[in-house]
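Troubleshooting log. The previous run stalled partway through. Resubmitting the same two chains, unchanged.
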Amino acid sequence: DQQVKQNSPSLSVQEGRISILNCDYTNSMFDYFLWYKKYPAEGPTFLISISSIKDKNEDGRFTVFLNKSAKHLSLHIVPSQPGDSAVYFCAAAETSGSRLTFGEGTQLTVNP
Amino acid sequence: KAGVTQTPRYLIKTRGQQVTLSCSPISGHRSVSWYQQTPGQGLQFLFEYFSETQRNKGNFPGRFSGRQFSNSRSEMNVSTLELGDSALYLCASSPPLQWAGEETEAFFGQGTRLTVV
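Second attempt completed without errors. Output:
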């Protein structure tokens, strides 16, 4: 039972445009959501998080939106840069600091 | 501050053997979690240790086990290796929460790439 799903295995965008990565979850106990970026042969690195009391969190070029009623979150990257090309994982937890449940990942490719 | 360190980085084992992977968390972090990454499956949670106690366990067979030492370093062991155990094994450590509801994240090591032949 996949509690966190990223339905797009891959996404390709042009440099300078917006990248939108989507994530859906089924467990209503999830209260804290994170996005990680992963390059080949490296461990995931934290990008941005959001708790369920918010619907938006921004950090520079990265913005995460949370729609609790739809159990959906998205990561917006504006403007996209070639260095953003990586696999992006969505993760959820019942509370901050507790075990993470990850999605399958989305391979983002930003073309120059 | 040193990051999460996993050793070895690469490992090749034969079916039926057993393997032990090591993880040293960031100094001061007491929570250590292990994940398995395989193509198309994302990261699957194996188990979490906190203060030498297993606090949480994922849906993996008993061949997968772990432990944590008093210095928070952790090891995971896989016995009777199967071809399907070939994966990237990632360890993550988390800082102690200063207050309930504090937002934090898990910090990952570079992983151990295990190949079972």
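Takeaways: The interface with chain A takes residues 4, 6, 31, 33, 35, 40-45, 48, 56, 58, 90, 92, 94, 97, 101-111, 113 of chain B (CB under 8 Å). Chain B has a mean pLDDT of 92.
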